[in-house]
Design brief:
The protein is α/β, with parallel strands linked by helices. Helices cover 36% and strands 13% of the residues. The strands form 2 sheets. Strands 1, 2, 3, 4, 5, 6, 7, 10 and 11 form a 9-stranded mixed β-sheet that branches. A two-stranded antiparallel sheet has the order 8-9. About 3% of the residues have low confidence.
C-alpha cells in the first residue's frame, strides 16, 4: 500500500474525533494482555508474522521496540544491535564497531531490508537463546520499519474487525541523541502519520529513561498514555527493603509526567517462603494509590521466575493476588486464556 492510498484508508480506520484526551486510567475493566515483541514464544521476535499471530490469539496490545537507522528510519528491533536477530555479520562483514557489535544506526534502511531476521541467538555460538522456540535461521523473516508495522496492525484490525492497540517503546533515546537523532520526535511523527494518534486509548508509549519520558509530555505534546519503565536500581532497593513511604514519594513524582509504570517481575515477586507462600512487594498497591497503571514484564512459559512453580501460579500471583492492570507475555495466547477464565470466574 503506498502512502497516498494509506491516507484514505487511515481516515476510514481512524475517524476524526473531537475528544483526544487520555481516558481515565483507573479502574480498568480487566487486565490487558500485551504481546511482548509479538508472539515471540512462537515466532521470531518483532517480525510481522509474530505480530499477526499475537493479533490472532486475542492480544489487546502488540509491542514495538524502536531504534533508528543511519538515515533516520524507525525500525522495530529490541536492541540497538542487529547481530543477535539477523544475518548482518554474514551480509556485511567488517561493519562492526570496535566492540564487535553491529549497530543498527550504522546501517541505512535499504541495507536493513537486505537482512534476514531470525529467532534470537548468541552471536558467538549461533545457538538459540530459547532452544525450544522457533529454529534459528529457518524460513524467511525480515525486520520491519515502524511505519510498515503500524500499517500492518491497522490492516489486521480492519480486516478482522477486532481491535488490537500498539505499545511502542523508545529504545535508548540518549544514545540516539548523541548520534544526532531525535528518536522520540521521529516515532511520534510516525504514529501521527499512520493515524494511530487519533485514538489515544489504542496507544501506549514507554521508555526507560525518565528524562525522555517526561519530555514526551512537557516538550513534544504527546497525548497518548505514557509508561515509565522501571529499570533503575533504586526501585529494587525500595521494594526489597519495604520502604513504602519512599516508594510512594518516587511514584508521586512519576505521576507528574506518566500514566503508568512498567516494572520487571523482580520488582513485584520477591521470594517464596518455606510454606509455599509467594511474597510480593507493595509496588502495585502504591502505584494504584497514585492512579498509575502497572504493566509488568515479562511472562515467559519457558523461563519462569524461580519463586513460582508454574505458569498458572505466575498468572495467579500477577492478576489475582497483585491485581496488575496488564502484563507483557511472550506467550500471549496462554495469558489471554487465563484472563478469560479469570473473568468467567
Amino acid at each position: 500500500m503506498n502512502h497516498a492510498s494509506y491516507g484514505a484508508f487511515a481516515d476510514e480506520l481512524f475517524p476524526s474525533v473531537t475528544d483526544c484526551t487520555v481516558p481515565p486510567l483507573m479502574p480498568s475493566t480487566r487486565p490487558i494482555v500485551i504481546a511482548h515483541r509479538g508472539a515471540s514464544g512462537y515466532l521470531p521476535e518483532h517480525t510481522l508474522e509474530a505480530k499477526a499471530y499475537a493479533h490472532a490469539v486475542g492480544s489487546d496490545f502488540l509491542e514495538q521496540d524502536v531504534v533508528l537507522t543511519r538515515d533516520g528510519v524507525p525500525i522495530v528491533l529490541h536492541d540497538i544491535h542487529l547481530d543477535t536477530v539477523s544475518d548482518v555479520a554474514r551480509k556485511f562483514p567488517g561493519r562492526h564497531r570496535e566492540d564487535g557489535r553491529f549497530y543498527a544506526i550504522d546501517f541505512t534502511w535499504d541495507e536493513v531490508q537486505q537482512l534476514r531476521a531470525s529467532e534470537r541467538f548468541q552471536p558467538a555460538t549461533g545457538k538459540a537463546v530459547y532452544p525450544g522456540r522457533f529454529p534459528v535461521n529457518q524460513s524467511r523473516f525480515s525486520i520491519p520499519s515502524l511505519q510498515e508495522e503500524l500499517e500492518f496492525i491497522a490492516g489486521l484490525n480492519f480486516s478482522t474487525g477486532r481491535t488490537a492497540g500498539i505499545y511502542t517503546e523508545l529504545k535508548q533515546p540518549r544514545f540516539h541523541r548523541e548520534a544526532g537523532q531525535d528518536i522520540s520526535k521521529i516515532v511520534l511523527d510516525t504514529i501521527s502519520k499512520t493515524g494511530w494518534d487519533r485514538n489515544p486509548s489504542q496507544v501506549f508509549i514507554q521508555c526507560f529513561e525518565p528524562i525522555e519520558t517526561r519530555r514526551l509530555k512537557s516538550e513534544l505534546g504527546c497525548r497518548m498514555p505514557v509508561i515509565q519503565l522501571l529499570g533503575e536500581d533504586k526501585w529494587i532497593e525500595l521494594v526489597k527493603a519495604g520502604r513504602v513511604t519512599d516508594l510512594e514519594k518516587e511514584l508521586e513524582q512519576v505521576r507528574e509526567y506518566a500514566d503508568g509504570v512498567g516494572p520487571a517481575l523482580g520488582h513485584l515477586i520477591l521470594s517464596r517462603e518455606p510454606d509455599g507462600f509467594v511474597r510480593t512487594s507493595p509496588l502495585v498497591e502504591a502505584a494504584h494509590k497514585h492512579q498509575l497503571r502497572v504493566h509488568p514484564w515479562t511472562i515467559r512459559a519457558d523461563d519462569l521466575p524461580k519463586q513460582v512453580t508454574s505458569l498458572d501460579e505466575l498468572h495467579d500471583v500477577l492478576f489475582t493476588q497483585l491485581g496488575v492492570d496488564g502484563a507483557f507475555s511472550d506467550f500471549p495466547d496462554l495469558t489471554v486464556h487465563f484472563i478469560h477464565d479469570l473473568k468467567r470466574g
